[in-house]
Amino acid sequence: MAGIEDVAKLAGVSTATVSRALAGKDHVSERARQKVEAAAAELGYVASHSAYTLATGRNRNIGVIMPYVDRWFFATMLETMESTLIEHGYDLTLYNLSGGKMQRDKIFKDFLGRKRVDALLSVAVNPSADELDTLNRLQRPVLGIGGPIQGARSLAMNDFSAGKLATEHLISLGHRKIANLGGYTGSDLEFNQANFRTLGHLDALKEAGITQNPAWKMECDYTIPGAFFRTKQLLGDPRNAPTAVFCNSDEMAIGVIMAVKDLGLQVPQDVSVIGIDNHDLSEFFGLSTVNQRVREQAKTATMWLLEILDDADPDVRVNRHESVEWPVSLLVRSSTARPATEA
Prior knowledge:
With 343 residues, this protein is an alpha/beta fold. It has three domains: 4-47, Orthogonal Bundle (434 Repressor (Amino-terminal Domain)); 56-156 and 294-310, Response regulator (Rossmann fold), CATH 3.40.50; 159-291, Rossmann fold, CATH 3.40.50. The chain is 42% helix and 16% strand. It is built from twelve helices and twelve strands. Strands 2-1-3-4-5-11 form a six-stranded parallel beta sheet, covered by helices on one side. Strand 6, helix 9 and strand 7 (217-220) form a beta-alpha-beta unit. The model is unreliable at 50-56 (pLDDT under 50).
């Protein structure tokens, strides 16, 4: 069986270069990497994971924890993270919290405690003080996405500002009858994203001197069917219907667009609709949205965590509070326009 020395000899490089190239390290020239990969393929060489772990104490495996995997935002995050990690020679272990508190306790106290991962990417999950203490004792860096984590690094957009920006766009077009379709109160126990987006919406209304109709504050799950059903009820009374709807997510907004059309109305002639995310289907539906560049956000967070792991200074790998705001931008398409009744 071929060894690392055989690969190095055939490729004409050092064993250290072979190790770095096959581990996906950045500081290897592309020419050297290609020579190493060709030599390894010719000799049938596969780097020993156990030997690497014994020599370095590292697993080249990153844990990713998230509350769902069957929703677009999380699936897109996961896909991008996995692709980025594979590109840099890392495996990924997924921990899904859909099983509730018992499953969460088992993940933090048992699975992560087995030292199977080198670090943790936490997507829309806010580790408690006890959970973070467990990771600190294991010397496992944590990087969160979705909101600030006390005692750990995080990368997240400002949900309040995103909700306010979307609503300000509608107000700038002349809308004053603006409904909000948000998440169920108390459904997000991690970072309260749904509430912050709605609070940003309300702040924009207040600054514009607009009093919201209580009937136009709606809640549902973050799904197309849920938003479709709620919108049918909202627009069923033509004497008390809004001219615009701000949705806390694009999937909700797509459900609203479908409900509007199902009622024989038109977007944006009768109802303007705006969301948050820039979902893959948003362009197809002509949806105006607050673009948070989900794939770029996931890749940036993953690369940041890998840089922390690769830093020669062990103190850098110690968890510390550092919250970086991810910038968002308004993306205007055809679902928003001036209200026909108030132009």
